[in-house]
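// run 5 | inverse folding | seed 20
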């Protein structure tokens, strides 16, 4: 496709900007949510950070927050001539938690109204300060123990292991595509798909992975 040979093909991976659900402290999952004013500023910051980079292909999911963040980036990249939609990089589904506020979730944990073997990993979608609040009244040992739910999905939702499986498939196909076509790629994705992408690419442990908070305005760069 592109004849000029590149030395070290690049992946530029970033999260969409803040959405109305993020702003209001709700579990978004695969629900549709629009970028806020701050979210658009996040997208513009990503665009500036990538301004001096070069990529010929961009990948997004079907959700508007992924596509709208990418639009801001693409204003500076006329060399990007191919757009691909791939929902293997979509956000983790939180099933029956989608739309619920984080505060309500935290209150119900405090009341022991949630089975933490099922819902415990949802804590990793909270802001760091909210995680600290949960740990404070659960206790350190119980807080650590809930991460054993790595392979347990909330009802009608996905586990981290489910997301890792589809992201691993995506990475395998992505590398083949990049090498075959000799292209750099930008990916506009979501917090938990990025979490698992990082785990695979950086060979991180489960313990490391669940501690990460994925910022709205950071670009993760990988060379293959």
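// decoded
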């Amino acid at each position: 496709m592109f004849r000029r040979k590149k030395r070290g093909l690049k992946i530029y991976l970033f999260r969409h900007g803040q959405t109305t659900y993020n702003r209001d402290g709700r579990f978004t999952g695969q629900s549709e949510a629009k970028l806020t004013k701050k979210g658009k500023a996040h997208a513009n910051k990503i665009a500036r950070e990538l301004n001096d980079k070069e990529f010929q292909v961009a990948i997004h999911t079907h959700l508007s927050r992924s596509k709208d963040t990418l639009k801001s980036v693409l204003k500076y990249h006329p060399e990007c001539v191919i757009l691909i939609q791939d929902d293997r990089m979509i956000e983790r589904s939180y099933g029956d938690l989608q739309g619920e506020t984080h505060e309500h979730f935290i209150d119900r944990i405090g009341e022991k109204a949630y089975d933490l073997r099922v819902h415990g990993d949802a804590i990793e979608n909270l802001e760091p300060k909210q995680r600290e609040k949960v740990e404070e009244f659960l206790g350190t040992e119980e807080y650590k123990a809930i991460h054993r739910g790595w392979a347990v999905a909330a009802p009608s939702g996905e586990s981290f292991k489910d997301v890792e499986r589809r992201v691993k498939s995506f990475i395998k196909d992505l590398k083949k595509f990049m090498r075959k076509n000799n292209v750099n790629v930008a990916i506009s994705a979501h917090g938990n798909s990025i979490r698992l992408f990082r785990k695979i690419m950086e060979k991180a442990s489960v313990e490391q992975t669940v501690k990460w908070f994925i910022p709205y305005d950071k670009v993760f760069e990988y060379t293959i």
